[in-house]
Amino acid sequence: MNTNGNIYTVIYSTVLVVLVAAILAFVAMSLQGKQNENIKRETISKLLGAASQVDSTFVIEEDADILGLYAENIKDAFFVDGTGEKVGKMDTGKENKNSIQVTSTSDLKKQNDILKKIEDGEGDRISELALPVYVFDINGNEVTVIPCYGAGLWGPIWGYLAIDSDGSTIDGAIFDHKGETPGLGSKIADKPFYGKFHGKTFNLDGEKVFTVAKPNAITEPEHSVDAISGATITSQALGNSINLWAKYYKPYLAKAAAAFKAEAAAADSTATGIAAPAAEIAGIK
Predict the structure, then answer these.
(1) Model's pTM, two decimal places?
(2) Mind listing the pLDDT tens digit for each residue in 217-258?
(3) What gap in Å lies between CA 241 and CA 246, rounded to an integer?
(4) Nearest Cα to 109, choosing from 147, 60, 166?
(5) 8 Å CB contact between 204 and 167
(6) Domain boundaries, the chain
(7) How far apart are CA 242 and CA 234, in angstroms?
């Protein structure tokens, strides 16, 4: 074959492209397991990072066994639908830390797509939801961690909020992004920003559950945090994401808060030797 001819050039280029593609595909498949493991560890780090803010003495060291720490402090992990009913469980790794199951950002995106369809009125899709819930015991403090996910200025943004047993108080928060502007929108991942969420509350009785906005636009400070200066779009996008996800977690959070209140009332009545009325324990006035 004439090595200087067009046919040779085409054949040579085709073989080279196929060979390189095959090598890249093989490498990608070989590294898939490691990549998934790294994603899981990163998610677990974020979950623990949010939950641990309930207790300042709970410190996660840089060289900590993340999987072991998670398995030690997680109480339960499951999914709920839009009515607050449990629809599935995740392996907490109590018996084998390597079997821990957590949701990835791609899983959160799928749920976010369903939420947007519900908001757009595309049929009754409440039952299709499988929203993840993680319940931790941090030095005796029970805290529930729920995620949020949405579109930022340049790509997806997501985060995890640690909610107190009362179902509304935020004990901690942590956020991340794929490509927000460095020094501006990227600050959602910095402690000076997410630290503002500690002690804030969800407005479970209102249409607007939570807000991230400029100071002059905030009307309910207890249910809001200030937007990042110069990153209005990213801040508002994060606020919208938190509000949307919290809206569909409300049924579960309300049930969890009622159960906690009933349990506390029952424990108190046992300690005092006085049986509390059933209506009082259930929170009915």
Answers:
(1) 0.82
(2) 888 999 999 999 999 999 999 999 999 999 999 999 988 888
(3) 8
(4) 147
(5) yes
(6) 39-272
(7) 12
